Amino acid sequence: MFGLSLVPLLFTALASAYPNRGPCTGACQTKDPAVIQRVSDGKFYRFGTGTGITTHSAPSVRGPWTELGGALPEGTSLRLDNTDPKNLWAPDVHYQNDQYYMYYVLSELGTKNSQIGVATSKTLEPGSWTDHGAIGIPANDAYNRIDPAFIQIGGKNVLVFGSFWGDIHQVIMDTPLKVGSAAPYQVSWNATLNHREEGAYEFKHGDFYYLLYSAGIAGGYTKNYPPAGAEYHIRVCRSSTGLGDFVDADGKDCKQTGGTMLLSSHGQVFGPGGPGVYTDKDLGVVMYYHYYPLATKQQTETANGNVNYKFSWNVLGFENGWPYVKAN
Ligand SMILES: *[C@@H]1O[C@H](CO)[C@@H](O)[C@H](O)[C@H]1NC(C)=O
């Protein structure tokens, strides 16, 4: 029998733990995943960082996932010094006007030499994408043009992006293919010295728009991996307009170092980041992300660090209008 005095201890232990990650079977390697269900047949497609943007499909978020190939097998038509047009990052895919739009990144790692491009497809299949090149976010030292995530708000085409340097920005696009004259603006910023925020995603649920972002150190986990807590983790802010004014659960402005922890390292899940959200007909609101299996972290560095990240997901519950990671 538990003595009464054990009850507070039990609650403390529960409060700091996360439920198990959702299962993934088949080909689960991914980095910066984007998941979408094909409108015609409900089949799941998963895109990720890698040659021509990696494409996988599955009958459910659990898998089994099958590798299909590069979305843009010949790479992008974009050209940037010191980059390989096939080495594309951080896709975001949505459906609009009877077709799919994929935003992707061409970037020189560790620099602001980056561009966000867009391609369209009717089917999501590798090789079916028509590349349209850069969307035209103006260059600015205030941000880095990486990690796009699209959302439509009141008929406006809104792109969240950035940034590592300068953290998270938004820009209103003239069309899903082009940014016009609208200037990007900041939506989240950590004012402390190592203020890394990137890999954001915005979605609406109930009365609020939620901004998820990845904070901390994204990789290099196999050699000089970061001190506990400094690695990637996912934070959340919310807003009633979705176009700024994001605050955290304590009411702190997310442009002034606000941001509530949603998911951090636990068990085998090290450095979760690159989140996205969709509504599953069986599971409800699902957040997916990549993580680094802890067992891999202790091995030696491989030539391509990207291969070690795995896909996972959890159901989100909401309490008082704030999401939390719920047991599946
Ligand atoms: C801001 O950055 C500091 C230093 O990296 C970190 O300790 C803190 O958790 C960050 N705050 C938020 C809200 O992300």
Strand composition percent: 35-45%
What is the count of structural domains?
1
List low-pLDDT spans: 1-15
Total strands: 21
Distance between the termini: 29 Å
Query: H/E element string?
Result: HEEEEEEEEEEEEEEEEEEEHEE
Topology:
Layout lengths: L5 H10 L18 E4 L6 E5 L1 E2 L2 E5 L7 E5 L16 E10 L2 E9 L6 E8 L8 E5 L14 E5 L2 E6 L6 E6 L11 E4 L8 E9 L2 E8 L17 E7 L20 E4 L5 E12 L3 E10 H4 L12 E10 L2 E5 L2
Antiparallel strand pairs: 1-2, 2-4, 3-6, 4-5, 6-7, 7-8, 8-9, 10-11, 11-12, 12-13, 14-15, 15-16, 16-17, 18-19, 19-20, 20-21
The chain binds 2-acetamido-2-deoxy-beta-D-glucopyranose.
Describe the structure.
The chain is mostly beta strands and 328 residues long. The chain has one domain: Tachylectin-2, Chain A (5 Propeller). Helices cover 4% and strands 42% of the residues. The chain has helices spanning 6-15, 294-297, and strands spanning 34-37, 44-48, 50-51, 54-58, 66-70, 87-96, 99-107, 114-121, 130-134, 149-153, 156-161, 168-173, 185-188, 197-205, 208-215, 233-239, 260-263, 269-280, 284-293, 310-319, 322-326. The strands form 5 sheets. Strands 3-6-7-8-9 form a 5-stranded antiparallel β-sheet, with no helix packed on it. A 4-stranded antiparallel β-sheet has the order 1-2-4-5, with no helix packed on it. Strand 4 (54-58) and strand 5 form a beta hairpin. The protein is globular. The protein starts with 5 loop residues before the first helix and ends with a strand. It binds 2-acetamido-2-deoxy-beta-D-glucopyranose. One of its GO terms (molecular function) is arabinan endo-1,5-alpha-L-arabinosidase activity. Endo-1,5-alpha-L-arabinanase involved in degradation of pectin. Its preferred substrate is linear 1,5-alpha-L-arabinan. It catalyses: Endohydrolysis of (1->5)-alpha-arabinofuranosidic linkages in (1->5)-arabinans. It is found in: Secreted. The active site is at 32 (proton acceptor), 198 (proton donor).
